Structure formats: C-alpha cells, structure tokens
Amino acid sequence: MASSSASRLVDFDAIEHSKENIEPIPRGRSAIALAKAFQQPTSPQDRHSVQATLRAQFEKDLVSANELDDPLEVWLKYIKWTDETFPQGQSTESGIARLLERCTEQFKNDKQYKSDPRYLRVWLAYSTYSDSPLEIFAFLQRNEIGQELALYYEEYAAVLEKMNRKRKADEVFQMGLLAEARPLDRLRRRYTEFQRRLQINPPDPNEPSTPPAPLRTILGASQITVPSAGVSRPRPKIQVYTDTEETEVRPGSAGWESIGRLADRKKENTIAAKPWVGEKLPMRAPTAAPAERLVVFRDEV
C-alpha cells in the first residue's frame, strides 16, 4: 500500500510554476493529470510524435464510433485526453475548441443524446469559447437539447447573472422549475440560493426588459406557475413579461439548424491576406512651418 500511494504523490512545484498556463474549467482539473502534462522527461520532438500518434488513433476510433451503442463515449475520451494533455486550453496545438465543435455538430440531431447530461456538458464547454454564449443557449432551446436537465437552466442563469441580467436569470430558473428539469431538488436549491443573492444585491432597475431569445417562444403563455417544494399544490401564478409582437420561431425552423462555426464568426474581424507587391504605405503630411518666427528677447549692452 505504501508503494502504491507513493507512486500517486504529485509534485506540486511543477504545477505551481506553470499555473499561469492552466486554463480553469468548472469541474476542476486532476492534479495527477496536470503533473503528467508539465513533467515531460522526453524532448519536445518525441513528445509531439507521441501526441500525434495518440491523436491519429482517436481520429481512427471516431470513424467507426457510429457502429457502437454509445458513440459519444469515444468522443468524450478524445476530449478528455486533449483537455489533460493541453491544460493551457485552446491553441493551434490543442485544437480543443474545434474538437468540442465537431462533437456538438455530430450529435445535434441525435435523439439518443437530447437529454444526455454528458452531451450537454460538451455544449457548455464549447460555449466558453464563444463570443456570444447566449446564442448557444438559444440554439439548444430551439433544438430541444438539454431541456429536461437542470444543468441547462443552472448554467444559463449563471451566464445571465454574470452579465447582470438578473431578472432574466430568474425567468430561466422559473422555466426550469416549470419543466421539472432533473434533478429537481438541486434546481430548487440553486434557485433558493439565487434568490438570496438577489436580496443582498437586487437587480439593476435599468436592466433590459426584453426577454432573452430562448424564452421568447416558451413564454408565449401570459402566465406560468412555479412548482413549490411540495408536490401537492402549486404556488399562485406568476406574471411573466411576454413580447407579443415577436414572430414565433419553433424549434427546428429555418435559421436554427446550425449554430455556425467559431472560425466563420472570427472571419468578420480578420483582414484578408493579400500580396504586398505594389502596395504603398501611407505617409504623414509634412508639418507646416510656423507663420512667424519666435522672437528671442535680448538684453541691450
């Protein structure tokens, strides 16, 4: 037992010296995996060769994954390996953002994973690399992904609360409770904690009153009922704002089949490369000379 426990000891000095290069993730990171990533005895060339071999094997496994009962598991192993091998996060070398994107695209129409918390976590990890995370939650709602899971409403409300849209976060919690998203007891507890925070730090009165995109179609009804802690009787109905002038967009309608790619969104802020042959750099116009010379005072001798 002593030798086994000794082999699992982690040298935290290696992690401490590299902690600025570690991207934090909500679920936390394994100290053993971090130590393994930063304590590489081999040369960079050998390390890259081993990584390329393992990546090629993962890509090969993905080709035949659809023949398995649970093809998502293969993707999850690939994502976990990438995440642990490259704790720095997204880079050209890791390609973690693109890998998450590929996984979300692969199963977005698969009924088997619509309410699978593992698949929803892939979407949530992918949303951290998006400039518009609210669009990700809107896409998930339109395509009925994760709508039975408390995790969807908890994370969506957390993003809204961080954006200081607390009224909207409250509406998201209410929708999760109305849908009886599982686990319902945890969702109720998170909502109670959220309400306590609102008592300490109330919403900004200037907060936008328009509901966020995913709720607009759901809130088509003028009233919703928030389930109470007991199952016997619901609480009095709560009035929720609805935008009656908005055209309803149903899940799966045109415009919501694809969320697009991160690379395509970044093209808008990228200047296209072009040859420098014949290009001229603009030059500043010469500064005009002063109209009159400065007269220097002299003492008369």
Please outline what is shown here:
The chain has 301 residues and is mostly helical.
Write the layout of secondary structure elements.
Layout: H1 2-7, H2 12-17, H3 31-38, H4 44-63, H5 71-85, H6 96-107, H7 117-127, H8 133-142, H9 150-162, H10 166-178, H11 184-200, H12 213-218, E1 223-224, E2 238-239, H13 262-266
Antiparallel strand pairs: 1-2
Overview of the molecule:
Strands 1-2 form a two-stranded antiparallel sheet. It has 13 helices and two strands. With 301 residues, it is an all-alpha fold. Among the domains are: 66-129, Alpha Horseshoe (Serine Threonine Protein Phosphatase 5, Tetratricopeptide repeat); 147-245, Serine Threonine Protein Phosphatase 5, Tetratricopeptide repeat.
Secondary-structure-based class equals: mainly alpha
Largest sheet: 2 strands, antiparallel
Low-confidence spans: pLDDT under 50, at least 5 residues?
1-7, 212-225, 227-254
Number of strands: 2
> What spatial form do the alpha-carbon principal axes imply?
flat
CATH level-3 fold name of one domain? Serine Threonine Protein Phosphatase 5, Tetratricopeptide repeat
Amount of beta strand: under 5%
Q: Number of helix segments? A: 13
Which CATH top level class of one domain fits? Answer: Mainly Alpha
Strand arrangement across the biggest beta sheet? 1-2
Radius of gyration using CA atoms only: 27 Å
Mean pLDDT: 77
The helix/strand order is HHHHHHHHHHHHEEH
End-to-end separation in angstroms reads: 102 Å
Indicate the percent of residues in helices: 40-55%
What's the CATH architecture of one domain? Answer: Alpha Horseshoe
